Amino acid sequence: MDTFPLMPIRNQEPLIVERLRIAFPKNPFTIERVPQVLSLDEFKRVVKLSPFIGLAWTGMKPDPDNGRMLKGNMLWRLILINRVSSGLEARFKGDKYDIGMDAMVDVASVLLQGVSFEGQGVTNVTLINSVIADGWTDDNVAIAQLDFTFSFATRAAATGKMQPEDFEALGVTWSINGSTETISDEIQPPQE
Asked: Using one digit for the tens of pLDDT, what is the confidence trace for 55-64?
C-alpha cells in the first residue's frame, strides 16, 4: 500500500477497512465512507445495504505538546446498521439468516481495540452506543455507533516545504485518461 506523508486520513482509511474485512466480508457486508451524521435520504439509501458499516472521519485531536511534528489522534466512527425481518429480538441477537447488532458491535470493537498498525499508529475504542435515526421508523432495524481513535504523527518537513516562500505558488498536475501526456501548471499569487 502506498503511504502519503502528511495525509494520515488517507493512510488510515484503507487500513481500517482492511482490518474490518477480517470478520466482515464483502458479501454480505457493505463498508462505505459516510458523513458522521447521515441525512434521512442517505440513511434510507444505506439501510437497504444492510448489514452496513459506515466509516466516518469525525475530526482530529492534536497532542498539546506538538512542536514541529503534528501528532495526535484522528477521530473515527463506525455506523453499524442491521436489518432483520424475523422479529424484534432478531435485530439484536440475529437469526439463521442474518447477523444481529450485538455480534456486529462485539466483533467490530474487538477488531479495533488496541491494534498497532506499523508506521501509522494505534487504534483505541472510545465509545459504543445505540442510536436512532431521527425521522425513521422501522422495528426491524438496529443502529449502533462505535467511536475510536487512530493515533498519528507527521512532519511538515516531509513535504520539503518549510519556508513561507515555499507556499507562494501552487503546482498542479493533471493526468488525462487515455493520454500519455501529463499536463502541469503553476499558479502564482498576484504580486502586490
From this structure: 999 999 999 8
